Amino acid sequence: MSRFARAIRVQNPWVDRLILGATIVLAILWVIPALWIVSLSFRPNFLLMRSTASILPIPFTTENYELILRLSRVPGWFINSAMTALLMTAMVLIVSSLAGYAFARIKFPGRRILFIFVLTGLMVPEQAVFIPLHTMFADLGLHNTYIALATPRVAVPIGVFLMTQFFRAVPREIEEAAELDNASRFTIFWKIMLPLAIPALTTLGLFTFLHAWNDFLWPLVSATDDDSYTVTVGLASIQSNYAQTEGLGMVMASAVLASLPVFILYLIFQRYIVSGVSMGSGR
Predict the structure, then answer these.
(1) What is the sign of the dihedral through the CA atoms of 31, 33, 37 and 39?
(2) What is residue 240's predicted lDDT score, i.e. its pLDDT?
(3) Which residues cross the membrane (predicted)?
(4) Residue 123 class from Cβ within 10 Å (0-12 exposed, 13-18 middle, 19+ buried)?
């Protein structure tokens, strides 16, 4: 903490309370729309046609969820999203950790130029490469497969940057001690560096899974068969004009079902995320 920040704390003891109060207010403002969506999903549609102002689901009904789950393709869409997100997450973690370790620890010709080239990928909108990606996978006959849904997002520049910064912060003395024991480069990476990088890998993996699960545009382009839809594309395909007619509750229930797996994952891995963010901010 800087001297200026410490001086402010000493002169004004209410700073921490004001920050805490502002954080609570912002958290409430963020939670209210989510609670409102959940409430609407448990209300009958004939009441939603009259008003959507109430945040309490009175009267309570599970009809909207039952209607969605009765559709035979919905479980398949969830499986497609899960398989795509897991495959994409696994490949991103493998590529990002290997590339990050190479950029951080291995000296090779053109390393800095190549690292800058990788970071320039952050400036390229993903929509700009949809046409060549679609053409490439169409020529290979891979559309409507998990490979086509997952592989276009494997080379994630932000993932390589995150892992590079993490490995650079690991003291070199750890590697030097392993080298004295005749450990190979891969052994150092696999048995020493990766266990240390679990918080960073967990954070990157969760955000990758979140992006893959919520992705809509590329699955809409790549998956043309109903049975190959992900949950986002599939649920959107059955909504039609429900929001303007009698199915607003079903739309809200679709949103809740689509976001529920990610919410559960965040609760499970919350401590790893906090650890990874705190370690990153401490550098």
Answers:
(1) positive
(2) 58
(3) 20-42, 77-101, 113-133, 145-167, 188-213, 247-269
(4) exposed
